[in-house]
Specification:
By secondary structure, the chain is of the alpha/beta class. It has one domain: Uracil-DNA glycosylase-like domain (Uracil-DNA Glycosylase, subunit E, 3-Layer(aba) Sandwich). The protein is 40% helix and 11% strand. The strands form two sheets. It has a five-stranded mixed sheet with strand order 3-5-4-6-7, sandwiched between helices. Strands 1-2 form a two-stranded antiparallel sheet. The radius of gyration is 28 Å and the shape is globular. The N and C termini lie far apart (84 Å).
Length: 235
């Protein structure tokens, strides 16, 4: 049976064909409405929601984050460090100067004290996980503002979901109030049994190591808090 082109040729009608750089395109054989690679690519490269990210993708998302004004003044983001299978998760308030320069949490003087606290618990630093409420340094080491903490809250929540710790140690007032959704003072939150949101994860509130460097007389209270962590882990 004659094709459409052969029939037209037999009738003395010239057949027109489209040409591209590769040669002729036969309209009879062309695939109409076939999406181009450029149209397909975005579907393949879609970024998952924060709640679906694994640790590696989440870290990359934090590194590229511009959700708040802290992104304009940071040197590095400080995602966190330690074991993703840790039983104990330490959460501070925000990176300081040394942390901002190195991109690692608690590496300055306060970090040395935190390491000593972790050792007192019977762990090496690489056996726990350490992070902060905000992932960029607030100027002059001030407390994170409400909108800054809010901008990072989904990142922190996802970190907790990935690690699934048995105990969270909230270091300082900002961390404690955010994790417990409370406006009670640090002194009012210390020493009380607490749970993180609607989970079975225990939260122990204690002083930030930077505060303990300024007020070493409070270290005894901090040790009492750490003792509660040991008790919770033994249950």
């Amino acid at each position: 049976m004659a094709t459409g082109d052969e029939f037209l040729t037999a009738m003395g009608i010239e057949v027109w064909k489209l040409r591209d750089r590769q040669g002729e395109i036969d309209l009879d054989k062309a695939e109409p409405n076939k999406p181009s690679q450029a149209e397909i690519a975005p579907e393949k490269n879609q970024v998952p929601a924060i709640e679906e990210m694994d640790a590696q993708v989440l870290k990359a998302a934090v590194a590229a984050c511009q959700r708040c004004q802290l992104s304009k003044t940071r040197t590095n983001t400080v995602f966190g460090a330690g074991s993703l299978e840790a039983d104990v998760l330490f959460i501070g308030e925000g990176p300081g100067r040394e942390e901002d320069l190195q991109g690692l949490p608690f590496v300055g003087r306060a970090g040395k004290l935190l390491t000593a606290m972790i050792t007192a618990l019977g762990f090496d630093r690489n056996q726990v996980y350490i992070t902060n409420v905000v992932k960029c340094r607030p100027p002059n080491n001030r407390d994170p503002l409400t909108d800054e903490a809010s901008a990072c809250s989904r990142y922190l929540r996802r970190q907790i979901e990935i690690i699934k710790p048995k105990v969270i140690v909230a270091l300082g007032r900002v961390s404690a109030q955010l994790l417990l959704d409370s406006e009670v003072s640090l002194g009012g939150l210390r020493g009380r049994p607490q749970k993180y949101r609607d989970t079975d994860i225990d939260v122990v509130v204690t002083y930030h190591p930077a505060y303990l460097l300024r007020k070493p007389t409070e270290k005894r209270k901090s040790w009492d808090d750490l003792w509660k962590v040991r008790l919770l882990l033994s249950q």
